[in-house]
Amino acid sequence: MEERIKKGEFxxxxxNVSDKLHHFIKSLIHVSVExxxxxxxxxxxxxxxxxxxxxxxxKLLNKVFKSPFRPSLSNELDTKYFxxxxxxxxxxxxxxEDYVLCEGA
Length: 105
What we know:
Blueprint: H1 2-7, H2 19-28, H3 42-47, H4 57-61, H5 84-89, H6 92-103
């Protein structure tokens, strides 16, 4: 995925994604690292994005909010909330690369 982002080949389905969220994500994965959201003014730049305009970061930091959804998992590897089409499209190569990156962590 990193290579696709570097080449500008990354895309995601637009269904059920607002224009503000679409812009936020595209700004985070801009091909030019220097142009990515947050690279000029750090977290303030991120916090000021219109998609995050209604977030009260003080309350978030102090864990005042309760999650609107708490998944019920059978174990730590439970994937019932993952989109199966995404799971099926993962290439073996990317899974192996992710494993190698995480193996030493």
